[in-house]
Amino acid sequence: METSSIALAADYLLETIAIILIAGMIFGKISDYIKIPDVVLYILAGIILGPHALGWISVEKYEITNQLILTFGAAYILYDGGREIKLKILNKVKVSVMLLATLGVLISTFITGYFASRIFNIDIMTALLLGSVIASTDPSVLVPLFKKVKINNKLKQTIISESAFNDAAGAIITFAIIGIISGKSFSAIGSTLELLKTAGGGILVGLVIGYISSLLVAHKEYAILKEYPAELSVATVIISYILSNKLGFSGFMSVFIVGMICGNKKVFKFYMQDEYFTTQHRFREVLTIILRMMIFILLGTHVELVALAKYWKGALAVVLILMFVARPISVLISVSLDRKAKWSLREIIYLMWVRETGVIPAALSGMIVTLGIPNAQIISSVTFATILITLTVQASTSAALARYLKLDEDYK
């Protein structure tokens, strides 16, 4: 009986992967034709294939399979995003990045939460929980986006770095509020220390594993695995994520730092041979495309259409407040405190607009529903409305806004 269940689970995994890949290719072609971001079409594909329509992909039936795809997909895309960061440029905007990822998340949480409590007539702690869930941005959207939109490196790497670092802050704030709602004691100092431990530990693990990985493929004497850079990158992502989680640190933070170290090998006097570098680069591009298909199609299967239909008016109002009130205020305050970065008005406006929501908020929302938190369906509905609207509206207009503000270097 047990063997039969394992075989069924294995068959389901293969079946799910095949369905996702075929659907991803079809909807990707449609995306190219109608000029809408592919992730929006992937979510639509997930809704169609999910339990509320065709029922070809069932999230509830094999939760481990779905969680595996979402977790590894988000981790590898974060790693890939880390590789896009150049340390020399990041050093110039590190204060802005840290403020956006911490203070900015807190400001967004409180502004969005306050208005959500009024709109849905719910208690303030539940409303703040809603605000914290949707406060962070999504590297799995932003990393591929800025491979196509050629804005200056300072702005691009601030946005990508913020999206990686604010996931940890958003998750910790969410867990702290859940603790309060559950009747546990809350300590501002304790929560701050927890944030420092979670993020700092993830950074430390990422530094160590990233350095060892680079040593093994790019050092003159110790590059014993120089022929396997792509294979090692996958193993490194998994090891750093698992090790960080087991130590109580942020696995997502860890893989992002690993990517940063691996993407800045020359800083450490490491050099890869061209043939191996090209192989790894092509592998990363293909794997990232596949993982994006899997992540967003699976997210589409999570959408609760009944709840979304019930709360859509309030959800739309909250999303608009997040986009046009909370985000602009949080960005303005955060970057204003970093005088050394010398942000221009055009760059600040662009930072205010680019804040797509995706994988991590969806995962937090799903966890809240599982825990049975009061008004969890409202939180879930607002989360998916935020994902759908920010991806449809903001992701699809990011390139046009960059051109309008004369930030796109291809149009200067």
From TrEMBL:
GO terms for molecular function: antiporter activity. It is a multi-pass membrane protein. The keyword Ribosomal protein does not apply. The chain crosses the membrane at residues 6-27, 39-58, 64-81, 93-116, 122-143, 164-183, 195-218, 249-268, 289-309, 315-337, 349-372, 378-402. GO terms for biological process: proton transmembrane transport. GO terms for cellular component: plasma membrane. Pfam families: Na_H_Exchanger. Residues 18-401 form the Cation/H+ exchanger transmembrane domain. Keywords: Antiport, Cell membrane, Ion transport, Membrane, Transmembrane, Transmembrane helix, Transport. The keyword Transmembrane applies. It is found in: Cell membrane. This is Na(+)/H(+) antiporter. It comes from Gottschalkia acidurici (strain ATCC 7906 / DSM 604 / BCRC 14475 / CIP 104303 / KCTC 5404 / NCIMB 10678 / 9a).
